[in-house]
Amino acid sequence: MNEAENRTRSDVAVVGAGLIGLATALELATRGLKVTVFERDTPGSGATRVAAGMLAPIGELEFGEPGLLSMSLRSRELYPGFVAALEAASGIDTGFRETGALHVALDRDEAGELRRSMDLQQSHGFDSGWLGPIAARELEPGVSPSLAGAVLVEQDAVVDPRALVEALRFALTEVGVEIIQAEVTGLLRGPNGRAEGVVASQADFPAGCVLAAPGAEAGIAGWIPEEVRPPVRPVKGQVAELRGDPESPACSRILGSERVYLAPRPDGRLIVGATVEEMGFDRTVTAGGAHELLREAYRLLPDVAEMEFAGIEAGLRPATPDNLPVIGPTGIDGLVIASGHYRNGILLAPITARAVAGLIIDGRPGEEIGAASPTRFKTEEL
Ligand code: GLY
Q1: CATH 3.50.50.60 in the chain, residues?
Q2: Structure confidence at residue 365 as a pLDDT band (50, 70, 90)
Q3: Residue ranges of the alpha helices (H) in 191-282?
C-alpha cells in the first residue's frame, strides 16, 4: 500500500490557514465534516498577522462599492456570536470591543472629504453626524487640538486578528481538525475532472472537495488550474505597532484620519495602519512607509510620541479588480474559492465561513455574498 492509500480521506481540504481558511474550517467541522487544513507557513502569518482588525463596514464605506456593504454589514452582525463561540471554546480574549470609531478631519480639505463620506453614510440610512472640535475632543481628549471636525460611527468595532487565530487553532483542535504544515503543489482530479483532494509534500491527500483560501497568492497559485484562477493581486500594506499603558490608553475607540487609522488593543497596544502600495509580492518595510505612518499618527494623536515603538511589518492584501471578494464555486466541480477580501478580510471572515459551509453542505452559499461570485470575471478577466 503506498502513502496515498494510507491517508484518511477528508470531506474538505482547506488550502490556506489565514483567518478565512481557519474560520471556514471551523464552520465546516462544527457542522460535522472532516476537515484538513494545509498551510505552507505558520497559520495566520500572512495578511491576517498584519491586519489592524477594524470591523468598520460603515466608517470604511467607499463610493462605488455598494455590493460590499450588505455582506459587510451582515458579517459585522455575525461578529459578536462568532467571537463569543471562539472565546468560550478557547478561553482566549480575542480583543473584540464595540468601541465605535471617530473619523477626524485635521484641516479644511480633509473636512470636505469627511463631509462627503458622512453624506454617503447618511444616504445609506446611517445616523453618522458631524461633531465640532470641542465635542470630538470630549470623546477623545488626545486628538489633535487643531482638528477641523469629526464623525462618530458608533457601530464600528475592533478585534485582534492574531488572538482570533490563536482562538481558532484551539477550537479547531477541539473539533478534530488537523493543520498540516506543507505546501500544496497540485490538485487531485477525478476521471470527470472533479477536484478530489490535493498534493502536498509529494503525497496525495484525497478529499470530497477542496477550498482554496490562499489570500494574495490566489492569482499565482500554480496548483489552481489556470482557467479558474481568479484575478487576485497583492496590495502591500505597512502597519506599525506602538505600546502604551493599558490603564491610560491613548484613545478608547478606533481613530481615523484621511491618511491613517489607529486601532486600540485591550493590552495598551495601538496599531497604526496602513500604507496602500501596488508593489507586487514585495513585503519590504521601508523608511518612507514608517515615516508616513508615524507622521500621520502623530498629526492625529500627538500622544503617540510618548508610546514605545514596537515595530513595523508589511502584509499583502488580496485585491480584485472591483474590490469585492471572490467566494463560491469555480468552473471545476468540487473546487471552491474564498479569496480577494482586500481591505476587509477580518470583517468578512464570519460571512465567508458561513457562505462556504452553506455552499459545500447545503449547495447554497446564501444571498448576501451573491456579488462575490467567482464567475463574474469569466468573460472580462479569465
Ligand atoms: N482594512 C484596512 C486596511 O486594509 O488597511
Answers
A1: 4-50+162-231+322-381
A2: confident
A3: none
